[in-house]
Amino acid sequence: MSKPSSLKHNVTCKSPAGKLLEEVITLMQQASVPTDISEHLLTIYSEAVECRPKLIVELGVRGGESTRALLLAAKRYGARLISVDIEDCAKANSSICWTFVQSDDIDFGNKFSEWNQAKGLDSAIDVLLIDTSHTYEHTLSEIHTWFPYLAPGAKVLFHDTSNSALCGFGVTRAIQDHLQIQFDESKYLPALYIEGWLVRHNPACNGLTILRKLDC
After folding, report:
1. Can you state the angle between helices 41-50 and 65-76, rounded to 10 degrees?
2. CA angle 161, 67, 58 (to 5 degrees)
3. Which is nearest to 8 in space by CA: 70, 79, 62?
4. pTM
5. What is the pLDDT tens value at each position of the chain, 216 positions in all?
6. Using CA atoms, how far apart are residues 168 and 162, in angstroms rounded to an integer?
7. Strands 125-130 and 197-202
């Protein structure tokens, strides 16, 4: 049963102009505490900002580290961040730009259009971050469920794409099978262009793989 927090008008989400330096400093301070994702927080923020997003979706919340990075990007453009986790993570943040939904992300994804329509929201996702079970089957299901909602030029960020010892290549293998590509998850990949996608990979801090949807 999903438990969405109340939605508030997006106008109040937008941060004042000229706050970029403050946002970066905030993220650098957060990233100074080493965690399994800390080295990617500034990247997550900057990649999201580059999209000038209206809607960001985060699958997997836990303690809310990536949530805070995505919220800074959301506030810059008055965007909405919707985060989904099977656990109750409602206390991870209190921002008015944030909506938390406690649900299985596949179940919620299957009714995402209807859920947004009921709240007067667009379902086109500009930034999608996936950091959940890290298993092959679940990640592949997430790709099949959520990719149809991606807006032109959208970005998808996958965390834990270099921890094969823990997850048996689950996330990376799902990406590779879906896109029909191969790359060494232990090495830095600056850019790989395939039909419809730009793929980049950073193996540090459990790995972050970024897909950019190329729409001509």
Report:
1. 30
2. 60
3. 79
4. 0.89
5. 444 444 443 445 766 555 667 777 877 777 778 888 999 999 999 999 999 999 999 999 999 999 999 999 999 999 999 999 999 999 999 999 999 999 999 999 999 999 999 999 899 999 999 999 989 999 999 999 999 999 999 999 999 998 655 656 789 999 999 999 999 998 999 999 998 999 999 999 999 999 999 985
6. 10
7. unpaired
Residues in CB range of 147: below 8 A, 6 or more apart: 156
Q: Kindly report the length of the chain.
A: 216
Instruction: State the amino acid at position 198 in one-letter form.
Output: L
Q: Decide: 211 and 197 in contact? Cβ < 8 Å.
A: yes
Query: How many angstroms separate the CA atoms of 111 and 119, rounded?
Result: 13
- The domains found in the chain, sorted by start residue, are 10-213 (3.40.50.150)
* Rg, Å, the chain Cα set: 16
Tokens representing residue 45 in the block: 């923020």
From the list 47, 32, 42, 84, the residue with the least C-alpha distance to 62 is 84
Q: CA distances (Å), 75 to each of 15, 17, 49, in order?
A: 5, 10, 10
Which residue shows structure tokens 């930034």?
Answer: 127
